[in-house]
């Protein structure tokens, strides 16, 4: 079988739902959902409820399976946030990789949602692990994140995040030896810069404003790149492009106060995402990343 049409993919999902439910499920409608960056997305309506389906024939084969694992891990934190229930994820093969999950309906009223988002995120960050990392690698955008368990946060951030990206940038875009020296010096300084008693906290990992949704059941997180990290990593991403109100921040800090000096580390943690943007998109992100690195030398 070649790559499937939208109709084929919907039919596969209906068969899956029928298997899961043990009774014949019928499709009652489907419509595209916009707003995503790279994937096809549909709302599919059936006799057993509405579902959200995304698929991609050219993404890394296991991207949606890794996303599904992140959603499941976030749900296990038992925070008050809504995490869509995963129904099915599959790898690229004879048919495109896909992720089928619960459809989250829009809310009638979002009053108090900012506060609930901040509080819920802080609750999720209280889920901890014996080391920094995750059960397997996953993706931030299409960049592979090496999540091998590491007991030192400074070492994890240095080797698995910053240096790993610098090496990928060197291969795909090239880097001058002067610039590489700057990153090398920064990586050497990380144990000094990061010694504020970090503990491994479950983070969403790619929390920009497009990755939370206000739904009929409350604030929800979608599209994660989860791992156990210093939770300030999450805050860095949230501040990189903005989109989180003062009510979110205040509720977060009330629920799980932040260690002294967190604001001074925000740029350092943004460096990972800026380097990743440079790897993925090029342009002025490369210059911005160097400026950040120099601030911490
Ligand atoms: P992509 O991986 O392509 O960026 P997203 O997971 O961010 O896709 O989803 C794209 C859009 O679809 C989101 O901005 C959101 O509006 C909507 N969406 C995502 N998940 C759901 C869901 N479970 N239920 C309803 N709408 C969703």
How many strands? 11
At the fourth level of CATH, the homologous superfamily of the largest domain is: Aminoglycoside phosphotransferase (APH), C-terminal lobe
Helix/strand order? HEEEHEEHEEHHEEEEHHHH
Shape: globular
Largest sheet: 5 strands, antiparallel
Describe this structure in words.
This protein has 297 residues and is α+β, with helices and mostly antiparallel strands. It has helices at residues 6-21, 63-76, 113-125, 153-172, 177-193, 232-241, 246-255, 262-281, 285-295; strands at residues 27-32, 40-46, 49-56, 86-90, 97-102, 138-140, 143-145, 201-203, 212-215, 218-221, 227-229. It folds into 2 domains: 6-102, Phosphorylase Kinase, domain 1 (2-Layer Sandwich); 113-295, Aminoglycoside 3'-phosphotransferase, Chain: A, domain 2, CATH 3.90.1200. The strands form 4 sheets. The chain has a 5-stranded antiparallel beta sheet with strand order 1-2-3-5-4, sandwiched between helices. Strands 6-7 form a two-stranded antiparallel sheet. Helix 3 (113-125) packs parallel to helix 7 (246-255) and helix 4 runs parallel beside helix 8 (262-281). The termini are far apart.
Short synopsis of the structure:
The protein is α+β, with helices and mostly antiparallel strands and 297 residues long. The protein has helices spanning 6-21, 63-76, 113-125, 153-172, 177-193, 232-241, 246-255, 262-281, 285-295; strands spanning 27-32, 40-46, 49-56, 86-90, 97-102, 138-140, 143-145, 201-203, 212-215, 218-221, 227-229.
